[in-house]
Amino acid sequence: MKAAVFREPGTPLTIETIADPTPAVGEAIIQVHHCGVCGTDLHSTEQQHEPGIDCVVLGHEFVGEIVELGKDTPAGWRKGDRLASLPFIGCGHCLACLKGTTWQCASRKIIGSAEAPGGFAEYTSVHLNEAVHLPDAVSWEHGALVEPLAVALHAVRKLNHGLAGKNVLVMGAGPIGLACVLWASFFGARHVIVSELDPGRAKLAAAFGATGLVDATGDVGEQFRTLTGSAPELILECVGVPGMIGQAMELAPYGGELLIVGFCMKPDSFLPAIAMVKELAVQFVIAYDKSDFQFVVDMLAADRIKVDGMITDIVPFSAFPTAFEALRRPTSQCKILLNPMA
Ligand SMILES: [Zn+2]
Ligand SMILES: [Zn+2]
User: Fold this and answer.
1) Using H for helix, E for strand and C for coil, what is the string for 235-288?
2) Based on the structure, what is the number of domains in the chain?
3) Which residues form the domain of 106?
4) pTM for the complete prediction?
């Protein structure tokens, strides 16, 4: 099959023919219809592979159609079924796997990493324990957004006091920031204000329910107060670079809440005293459970969330390495999808 392969940092992905996947117990092979590019895909091409690994197929935001079933697959799945899947392969029988919280499975592998090949390919394997049916009412394109939407949903579900009636600041309008804006609005926030550097991305935020925009290069606190009459009592950090948590602590009022969604791979520092004096509640979050995926699919199928503006480009294999590299620089692109069938 054809795949976009990552070989070493500093060189673009290469389109190669590699061996077709075969399904292990409980697994199915899907033909990938679309696969989104995530910030973590870019991050993982910055590091050298572990010894013994020379090529990796990334991509964990995929949807597809079952073309082959392995042995002992769970009931309810057939060839031709459309699905979205958590990009995890769990053991299938620990408590975490049975509950659908496979992230916490001790032997969990991540699809689209050095642990298991992912969706930047014509075919990939999924474990059907982690898959949810994608009804016909959800397009393939929207299906590829289930994963980033589930990240943001899982994040806001961790909030102790919810979103209803809150004055919320979302820092960063990348795909995860926009998805947070969508859920903040969906769950009843009063104001959803977005701070962002790129004017193109900032403009997208309104389509997802942002009630106001602030320029991230200016005085964010002052602009927020002008728009809402208050300080941001709940801040969703969706940028994931050093300095953001400290900045959010500065902006928060006494008793404020911080939700750290942006995935930061570098050491960061902040002054704990600032958070202490304000008695801030700081919650870090990661990934999603199967129930998050199912909720997103249900809301898409019922047309209760509008996500069209998030996809800014869909490219075939031939244009994919260049489109992937372009995301390393500041960009107005939001979500780019690979269409391996184009
Ligand atoms: Zn992702
Ligand atoms: Zn398990």
Assistant:
1) EEECCCCCCHHHHHHHHCCCCCEEEECCCCCCCCCCCHHHHHHCCCEEEECCCC
2) 2
3) 2-147+288-338
4) 0.96
